Amino acid sequence: MKRKNNLKELKDRNKKLILKTLINKGALSRTEISQYTGLSLTAVSDLIDELIEENIIKENGIGTSTGGRRPIMLQFNPESGYILVVKVDENKIIASLFDFSMNKISQKEIKFDYFEISKLEDKIKECYFSFEKEISKEDRKIFGIGICLNNDVKILKPRGILNTSISSEFITIEQSLSLELGLTVVQEDELNLKAMAEYQNLNTRQNLAYIKIDENIESSVIIKGKRLETSINIGQMIVDKNGPTLDEVVSIKSIIKRALIMIIEEHEKEQIDNIPSINIDNLCEILNDEKKNRLINEVSNYLKVAITNLKNLLDITVFIFDGKILKLSAIINSLARSCENMVIKNSSTKDEDVMREAAKLTLKKIINII
After folding, report:
1. Which of 76, 108, 126 delimits the end of a domain?
2. Does 355 reside within a domain?
3. Which of 150, 245, 277, 337, CA to CA, is 20 to 30 A from 157?
4. What percent of the chain has pLDDT over 70?
């Protein structure tokens, strides 16, 4: 009896491994699944047959031949069900419905602002019930909800509200929605989802760092295809022997401060009142070419120290930059020219890419529960 239980656990574990591989890689052949999972081709074929019979995956056309017969491709059965993904921004909520093959089926937008943070759970339920009504005629249902929060919303620490005596201080939106709707719910930061989306879009196996530079500096790191759980506060990295941190010399507020100092240095005291207001949008117009080039070189050199440290520490060779720093494109271009054997580029992820990564995370959690 114990042996039978062990064999069943092994089979279930291997099925989940196959399903997670299909989530990460998309449509694959039996041979490719065997290569990615390390399972024998015979074992993969047997498990695939069971998953097809269970209506979880399906054969989906013919793939490209690498010599010999063209392979039959496999993917999640899109008719298995749906995942609702809710992306919460400071002024709106984008809600998208994905099938299990990660195709976006439908999308809605509703207004939202910071003053409604206490009503966030109700807004998400409003989206859920709206989509549920739309698909009520189909023999399918929503199995899970993925929630994507940007940092501005995250710092407000939205809480769940249960129709019980449990205080909202002790329950998250994930927990509350899961209990009330009976669904799998996953909440993830937009920063981490963007890092995963960039990794998938580049189709690379190299380690990657996604770095967002605004008033502060945030980062998310992908090592061997998985997000590094340990937080790396790149903004506190020392980038000069005299001690300044990256935040103190590369954040948008520090760049503007440095530009302002440059302008003040060339003015007489009585002319300081005539200095125009400076921001990231007009900075390049106000600075002359000499000052602009000097500023770009300074910031690029500091960033070069930081990414070189990350390369040496974690073997990261792909760096994706995002945020207001992209308005000073010359900085990233200068950095790319000066760093050999590294990929340095601007972020190109779209909302749909980010939300698809949230859907994938939710589906992975559903698989672990099944």
Report:
1. 76
2. no
3. 245
4. 93
